[in-house]
Specification:
The complex is a heterodimer of chains A (571) and B (187). Chain A is mainly α. Chain A has helices at residues 3-31, 41-51, 61-84, 101-112, 122-125, 128-158, 168-192, 222-230, 251-276, 279-306, 309-312, 331-344, 359-371, 380-400, 413-443, 461-476, 491-521, 537-569, and strands spanning 204-207, 213-216, 405-406, 409-410. Chain A has one domain. A 3-stranded antiparallel β-sheet of chain B has the order 3-5-4. Chain B has a two-stranded antiparallel ribbon with strand order 1-2. Classes of the chains: A mainly alpha (571), B mainly alpha (187).
Chain lengths: 571, 187
């Protein structure tokens, strides 16, 4: 078997091997049991004392949301104003300019929400100050926000008939000090020793062997790249993200970065099992997610390794597969694997340009983001999956005539309304956004804006439509990868995707917390013969069907106009 | 709400110090001990820096191994991919033109021998590598122009070829800049 396939199989198996103990560790930390990371406790106590926080004061679900939203609002303003004035702030050795208001709006929202859609290029559109003090800071805290939100739901599932669901700040801080920071630290060191720059020196100018003058952007990138992967953020130091040879120098760093992309999302599924002491439920969830993941993975890898038929017609050999937009050191298998892992989680970093991938890969990547619950982003992946569980419980309940109960709580009209709204919101914002953009493109191609709509797309026909659909899917899923050909740094795209990002982040956090909070406060119904078992393979199939029907029915028409049509246009 | 705001403000300030200040400074400190001292690893020729090992460079002269086509023209302060879709007719014309140009400069090579990476642009626009096959089909041209035996060129390719990680993971590759420095050092 060739070394490219062995590479990706190894990456996946290594991820699982690390995710199970990590999940166990995370469950221990948040159950308050002893772990070897307890040496962080004095630092945490100091931070809480400094901030005037008493972690023994437990919150109900509304208080959790208030704390979460307040601090997010604060970060939004902080990020926006830093970006707006970054040219005047310190740590700007390359003398890069301020961001325009619409770009700063988009960028601030994008990093705040763990999306990291980047309408700028790191080399010229950000400073060392904003890279570290805005982006990297938000990398940590946005991941911790999702993490804490998920823990609220975990806690609500664990404790019966209670209003008290732990302390938000405790969840939030410990997910940084006990999980995100230590893992990032290790990853950053591995990157540094493989050639990723760490120093604060600015651009270098060298005269190459052939006599051309080259400016080489550098900067303290390793620290940021580590948390970009660990926190399912994806916003890199350089414009081309992990395709950049400084950001991802060799196959070893590619393995490390790609493992960290899905490590915590998978670990959190196992953490649920250890935390609730319901390991079977965790395996059912993991099974559903993994089957979904593999269904997307195989066609994409096979399409990329198989090469571009249009180039094969020209008579050249593609032993290395389709190489447009890919790096030789990774090859097509690892590029396709990355493409799927980065879209099933809401990571969004890339090691190859998705815009140049085969239509089958584009289809799989967009489908990942449209479902957004196969592993998913840190915390929020589970929250999305939780919504599907609730719907599946309700539907199965109706089908077999049993009361819809989940974890001993009855699911009633109010919870179902919230769950349906959240499930429908995602297709709504993606499809409305795409149709609006298509409408503007067709009816006002020459509108006198900064960028004329007719100049938005880098590719004609079906592929051009896919560029727009992908952008909204990525925004709504808080993914942040993009079809790079789209000219997105202009008012229309900055503002419209900014709004989609915002809605696509906070409502899917508020919904599940509300449902879980309401359920937890209800009386428990003791398990009886009439109770629907949720930790069985049958129920797994049910969840899978619910996910597939919701996603397939809502997105199929749009996908048919984009990647599916493009695929069948290849002779 | 007011208590949350004050708490949010304070915990944010202290986390900014920890996560944006101390953490990257610690990594920068450790990075000092890494190859290239955390500034990036450079390649020397005749006592001067001619580039970074990881950053691809433009090579268009026939006496050097060509690099891959680049949408960024190898400007390493703005790496970018072409973002051309696989069915874009203009793009396919470009690829065809690249094949013709390559054949003109490398007489004796047939279409079927050209590996795809030589006529497609990389994701970063700064790809430093070629596949060994991508280097080998250029050997005859370079040997002829430099008036050296083809074995010497092939020896350089072999010496610079990096096998898959641990012999198991990922594709083999060969660094273009390092090969070209080795070519110039032959004299």
């Amino acid at each position: 078997m060739n070394t490219e396939y062995i590479g990706i199989i190894f990456m996946y198996l290594a991820t699982i091997a690390l995710a199970i103990p990590l999940g166990k560790y995370i469950a221990k930390v948040f159950k308050g049991e002893k772990t070897w990371m307890d040496f962080m406790a004095p630092l945490e106590r100091f931070i809480f004392k400094f901030s005037g926080i008493d972690t023994h004061r437990e919150m109900n679900w509304k208080q959790h949301l208030k704390a979460l939203l307040t601090i997010n609002l604060l970060w939004l303003f902080y990020a926006f104003f830093c970006l707006l004035f970054q040219g005047h702030l310190p740590l700007n050795p390359d003398a890069n300019p301020n961001q325009t208001p619409d770009l700063a709006f988009n960028t601030a929202l994008s990093f705040l929400t763990n999306t990291n859609l980047q309408d700028y290029s790191g080399e010229s559109g950000a400073t060392y100050f904003t890279q570290h003090f805005v982006f990297m800071f938000l990398h940590f805290v946005s991941a911790a926000t999702g993490f804490a939100a998920m823990l609220v739901v975990f806690k609500a599932m664990k404790d019966k008939t209670t209003e008290k669901l732990g302390n938000y700040w405790d969840f939030f801080l410990k997910s940084i000090t006990r999980v995100l920071l230590p893992i990032s630290f290790v990853v950053a060191i591995i990157l540094a020793f493989n050639g990723t720059p760490t120093s604060y020196k600015g651009k270098d100018t060298v005269i190459g062997l052939q006599g051309d003058t080259v400016h080489v952007s550098r900067g303290p990138a390793a620290a940021m790249i580590a948390i970009k992967q660990v926190g399912t953020n994806g916003g890199g130091w350089f414009g081309v993200n992990s395709a950049h040879p400084f950001e991802n120098p060799n196959y070893l760093t590619n393995i490390v970065e790609n493992i960290t992309i899905i490590l915590i999302p998978i670990a959190l599924v196992f953490a649920l099992g250890f935390y609730l002491n319901k390991k079977k439920l965790a395996w059912v969830i993991f099974g559903v997610m993994t089957i979904g993941f593999l269904i997307m993975l195989f066609p994409s890898v096979s399409a990329e390794v198989g090469g571009n038929p249009n180039i094969a017609h020209m008579g050249i050999s593609q032993p290395g597969g389709s190489m447009e937009g890919k790096e030789v050191r990774f090859g097509p298998a690892a590029s396709a694997y990355w493409g799927i892992t980065t879209t099933v989680t809401s990571n969004g970093s890339v090691n190859a340009m998705h815009d140049s991938m085969m239509p089958v890969s584009g289809l799989a990547q967009m489908f990942d983001m449209m479902i957004n619950a196969f592993y998913g982003g840190i915390g929020v992946g589970f929250l999305n999956f939780y919504i599907f569980i609730i719907i599946a419980v309700f539907i199965s309940g109706l089908m077999v005539g049993r009361t819809p109960e989940f974890m001993g709580h009855k699911i009633e009209a109010r919870e179902m309304k919230i769950a349906s709204l959240i499930a429908l919101l995602h297709p709504f914002i993606i499809l409305v956004g795409t149709s609006l953009a298509s409408y503007v493109l067709v009816h006002f191609p020459n509108a006198n804006w900064g960028t004329k709509p007719s100049a938005w797309l880098n590719n004609p026909s079906f592929h051009g439509f896919t560029e727009m659909l992908y952008q909204y899917a990525s925004s709504a899923a808080n993914n942040g990868s993009g079809y790079g050909g789209l000219t997105a740094n202009n008012i229309f795209w900055n503002v419209s995707t900014g709004l989609v990002i915002f809605v696509g982040r906070f409502l899917p956090i508020i919904g599940p917390i509300a449902i879980a909070g309401i359920l937890a406060s209800k009386k428990t119904v003791p398990e009886s013969a009439g109770t629907l078992k949720t930790d069985t393979a049958t129920f797994g199939v049910m969840i899978f069907a619910v996910i597939f029907i919701i996603a397939a029915l809502s997105f199929f028409p749009a996908l048919a106009l984009g990647p599916i049509a493009e695929h069948f246009s290849i002779k | 709400m007011k208590t949350y705001l004050l708490q949010s403000l304070k915990i944010s300030v202290i986390l900014i110090v920890l996560l944006s200040g101390i953490y990257p400074l610690a990594i920068a400190g450790i990075g000092k001990f890494a190859p290239g001292n955390g500034d990036g690893v450079t390649v020397m020729y005749k006592g001067r820096v001619v580039g970074y090992a990881n950053i691809g460079q433009k090579f268009t002269k026939d006496k050097y191994f060509y690099s891959r086509p680049s949408a960024a023209n190898y400007q390493a302060d703005g790496g970018v991919g072409s973002n051309k879709g696989p069915t874009n007719p203009d793009y396919l014309k470009d690829v065809n033109a690249r094949i013709d140009t390559f054949l003109k400069h490398n007489p004796g090579v047939t279409r079927a021998q050209i590996p795809a990476e030589l006529v497609t642009s990389s994701g970063s626009g700064l790809d430093p590598d070629l596949s060994p096959a991508g280097a080998q089909i250029q050997a005859a041209r370079i040997a002829k122009i430099r008036n050296i035996s083809i074995d010497k060129v092939n020896a350089i390719i072999a010496a610079n070829t990096e096998q898959p990680l641990l012999g198991l993971f990922g594709p083999p590759k060969v660094n273009v800049l390092k090969m070209n420095v080795a070519l110039d050092e032959l004299k």
